[in-house]
Amino acid sequence: MRKLRPSKVRKLRNVCGLVLFGSLLLSGGCSLPSSGPATLLSGHRAPGSLPYGFVRVTPHVVDILARAVPRLATDFSDRRPEDIKFGIGDIVSVTIFEASAGGLFIPSEAGVRPGNFVTIPNQAVDAHGNITVPYAGEIRALGRTQVQVQQSIVDALKNRAIEPQVVVSLVDQRTSMITVLGDTSSQRLPARAEGERVLDVITRAGGTKNPGYDEWVMLERNGRRSLAPLGALIYEPENNIYARAGDLIYIYQDPQTFLSFGATGTQTQVPFNAWRLSLAEALAKVGGLNDASADPASVFLYRGETRDVAVQLGIDPAKFEGPIIPVIYSIDLRDHAGYFLATKFEMRNKDVIYVSNAATVEITKFLNFISTISTTVEDPIQTAISVYSLKAAIKGTGSFVNVTGNTGVVSTTPVTTSGPTTP
Fold first, then answer.
1. pLDDT digits (tens), the chain, 423 positions
2. I want to staple 205 with a disulfide (CB 3.0 to 4.6 A). Which of 74, 180, 290, 397 is the partner?
3. Pair 252, 186: CB distance under 8 Å
4. What is the C-alpha separation between 16 and 399, in angstroms, rounded?
5. How many domains in the chain?
């Protein structure tokens, strides 16, 4: 029987290994497993990929982002609202006083009626914006305040009545309303003359139906909209601005979440469960950085920023299209200062956190990959040698070669059976 020499075994193993490794290279199968980009800091980008801005987190960057958070006070003034003005459909009461009897409205007979005033029946501001007062004619009310309408009536009667004085009251307010919708008792509420803030209006409407940290408030005024978490109105009083007639307040639930990838304790979608969350708190929520694989210098946060914020961050907006610019923030947690910055860096809804692997992890992956290839090559060779040795054992005596190239002798001990034999 022809023996398989050890040198031939080694050659066969090497050839098989080269063939398998070469096939993996050609097929692209030699790429090491990874949970994300490993060359972000090098600036490498695939041709034709989406452009993005790259920003290293510094105290200046944190200050810029702190001013860019969604807040009502940023978009609207907090001036006290103007006096309520009459609108079409409002029900108005007019009371006219005269200085003495015998005038236009007060009879000269003192016993006829008590007092020195007369109240005109309630009336609505008509479609033309006017009300009607006897002996004064039509008085303009639309878009005017109570004091302005009173003065107009006095001016119309002063040459006919005895030192007339007028009191105009709003009996049924049907305009100058504030609309509240969403996760509350949706209704239209009359604006109050003394002025009230957004939280006062929400409270008057019945409050919110869901936890405050998941609620958002959208305020629409004069065709403009602004958005802020409900918590911003509660914990930052400057955002609880005055509501005004004609405002639309929409309250809705939108749980804030962020995504975690890479060398962190877990890779998942995580809810804020708070109206405000810092980057340090977000990392703690996912178990921090993986001590065995993470590179503390390569912590990245992905977010879309408006063009004006991107310009403040030093990004050239010319190469980007649309109102939102993709931005990647980088923070170095090898530096003690990085942790202080992470506690001030405020997370936003739908942010993405990615932590790169350390360089040593990539080397370990490569060595494990080579070990896997070696084992994959040796398994079929060992199987072939075992088959060769088995054939030799069946035929009698023969030499075998194990996978390491050592030779041995197959035992020729007769095989006995307990069954009947053939004569």
1. 455 455 555 555 555 554 444 444 444 444 555 555 655 554 556 666 788 999 999 999 999 999 888 888 777 888 888 889 999 999 999 999 998 888 888 877 655 556 688 999 999 999 999 999 999 999 999 999 999 999 999 999 999 899 999 999 999 999 999 999 999 888 999 999 888 999 999 999 998 888 788 899 999 999 999 999 998 899 888 899 999 999 999 999 999 999 999 888 888 999 999 888 999 999 999 999 988 888 899 999 999 999 999 999 999 998 898 899 999 999 999 999 999 999 999 999 999 999 988 876 565 554 555 556 556 555 665 666 666 666 666 766 555 445 444 555 444 444 444 444 444
2. 180
3. no
4. 23
5. 3
33 assigned to some structural domain: no
Closest to 135 in 3D by CA, of 151, 154, 107: 154
**Amino acid identity at 301:** L
Helix (H, G, I), strand (E, B) or coil at 400: strand
Question: CA-CA-CA-CA torsion for 144, 148, 149, 150, nearest 10 degrees?
Answer: 160
Q: State whether 348 and 266 are in the same domain.
A: yes
Tell me which residue of 330, 308, 256 sits closest to 42, measured CA to CA. 330
Using CA atoms, how far apart are residues 40 and 262, in angstroms rounded to an integer? 13
Domain holding 150, by residue range, is 91-172
How distant is the alpha carbon of residue 95 from its chain centre?
55
103 and 219 belong to one structural domain: no
Q: Which amino acid is at 270?
A: V
Q: Could you say which of 340, 361, 382 is where a domain stops? A: 361
